[in-house]
């Protein structure tokens, strides 16, 4: 197989990591909403943890994207 | 223009043909990235210092911006690190304002996003981790290594200490790649959709009318990118505070 074709396939496969990011982000916001609807008074105190959790989760997915870009453009 | 590579926007180009000076055999140019960094530093520093000069008790709107951002970062440090972390307020505030303004300046059409370069974000993350290590050893001496020893029975520690060590060592990587990948992905998406608008518009006939769809999507993504710019700056600063807290108070629960 040519290198260019293998690169394309590899980059496409590396993007599967974003599935996990989607599930994780949905998870964290779903749990925040469930908690906030049960106890609205405590919701504001957890926004820091919410945004932190969202960013950490998105970062893990974006690591996969970085691998895809590395394959496409650095090798 | 329609076939332009969406990654072209991230090219770092020298603005002046001749190199400024040589450093270890490498010529140092004044690039578009350097210009943006100089602009960000000058504009943010001058704005923040000039608007608080009169120091009115009832602030003007610009003075409010400076005061609100001060309080925002101060509260963030206080809630994660406690009051002895306020020593690091200048450091965290500078990081926050620099990353925030670099992200926002990148949203200007035709502008260059400084934080979309892994060199810049890794330098910032490396600075944060070196500060954390330095502060930890300065405060606790060799006892700082107790950071890697969580409260667990001895048979779990054999497994936990390497895991803790590896997770500590990957922090600068995750910190830098998080910011870099978010900025890169956002701007690449904008460039790709802009290419769609141009291709559809140039196709002529019915397809030219359809070009309104990617354009509307781009407006939405632009708003999302503004949110992501602020959020990534906030997360960078918050994680800096959390790592500093771990260095200052090793495993103490308050």
How would you portray this structure in words?
- The complex is a heterodimer of chains A (75) and B (254).
- Chain A is an all-alpha fold.
- Helix content of chain A is 88%, strand content 0%.
- Chain A has helices at 3-14, 17-38, 40-43, 47-74.
- Chain B is an all-alpha fold and 254 residues long.
- Chain B has 8 helices and 2 strands.
- Chain B has helices at residues 32-50, 61-81, 89-106, 118-140, 154-169, 171-203, 206-210, 212-248, and strands at residues 21-23, 26-28.
- The model of chain B has no long low-confidence stretch (mean pLDDT 90).
- The A-B interface holds A 48, 51-52, 54-56, 58-59, 62-63, 65-66, 69, 73 and B 7, 76, 79, 174, 177-178, 180-182, 184-185, 231-232, 234-235, 238-239.
In short:
The complex is a heterodimer of chains A (75) and B (254). By secondary structure, chain A is mainly α. Chain A has four helices and no strands.
How are helices and strands ordered from N to C of chain A?
HHHH
Provide the domain count of chain A: 1
Helix content of chain A: over 70%
What best-fitting shape of chain A do the alpha-carbon axes yield?
Answer: elongated
For the largest interface, the chains and their residue counts are: A-B, 14 and 17 residues
Q: What is the quaternary state of this protein? A: heterodimer
Relative strand content of chain B: under 5%
- Head-to-tail CA distance between termini of chain A: 15 Å
Q: Could you name the key traits of this structure?
A:
heterodimer, A: 75 residues, mainly alpha, F1FO ATP Synthase, 4 helices, elongated, B: 254 residues, 68% helix, 2% strand, globular
Itemize the secondary structure elements and their pairings.
The complex is a heterodimer of chains A (75) and B (254).
Chain A: H1 3-14, H2 17-38, H3 40-43, H4 47-74
Chain B: E1 21-23, E2 26-28, H1 32-50, H2 61-81, H3 89-106, H4 118-140, H5 154-169, H6 171-203, H7 206-210, H8 212-248
Helix pairs in contact in B: 1-3, 2-3, 2-8, 3-8, 4-6, 4-8, 6-8
């Amino acid at each position: 197989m040519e290198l260019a074709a293998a690169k394309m396939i590899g980059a496409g496969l590396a993007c599967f990591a974003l599935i996990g990011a989607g599930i994780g982000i949905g998870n964290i916001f779903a749990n925040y909403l469930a908690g906030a609807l049960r106890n609205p008074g405590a919701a504001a105190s957890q926004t820091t943890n919410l945004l932190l959790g969202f960013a950490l989760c998105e970062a893990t997915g974006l690591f996969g994207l970085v691998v895809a870009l590395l394959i496409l453009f650095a090798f | 223009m329609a076939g332009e590579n969406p990654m072209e926007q991230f090219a770092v180009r020298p603005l002046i043909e001749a190199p400024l000076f040589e450093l270890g055999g490498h010529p140092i140019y004044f690039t578009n990235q350097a210009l943006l960094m100089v602009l960000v530093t000058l504009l943010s520093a001058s704005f923040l210092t000039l608007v608080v000069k009169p120091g009115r008790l009832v602030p003007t709107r610009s003075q409010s911006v400076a005061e609100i951002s001060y309080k925002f970062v101060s509260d963030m440090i206080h809630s994660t690190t406690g009051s002895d972390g306020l020593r690091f307020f200048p450091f965290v505030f500078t990081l926050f304002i620099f990353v925030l303004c670099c992200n926002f300046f990148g949203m200007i059409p035709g502008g260059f996003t400084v934080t979309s370069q892994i060199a810049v974000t890794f330098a910032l993350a490396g600075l944060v981790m070196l500060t954390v290590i330095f502060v930890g050893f300065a405060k606790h001496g060799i006892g700082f290594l107790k950071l890697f020893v969580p409260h667990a029975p001895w048979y779990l520690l054999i497994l936990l200490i390497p895991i803790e060590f590896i997770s500590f060592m990957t922090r600068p990587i995750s910190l830098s790649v998080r910011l870099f990948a978010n900025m890169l992905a956002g701007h690449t998406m904008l460039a790709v959709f802009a290419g769609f608008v141009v291709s559809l518009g140039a196709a002529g006939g019915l397809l030219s009318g359809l070009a309104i769809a990617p354009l509307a999507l781009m407006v939405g993504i632009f708003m999302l990118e503004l949110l992501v710019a602020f959020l990534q700056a906030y997360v960078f600063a918050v994680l800096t505070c959390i790592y500093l807290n771990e260095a200052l108070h090793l495993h103490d629960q308050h």
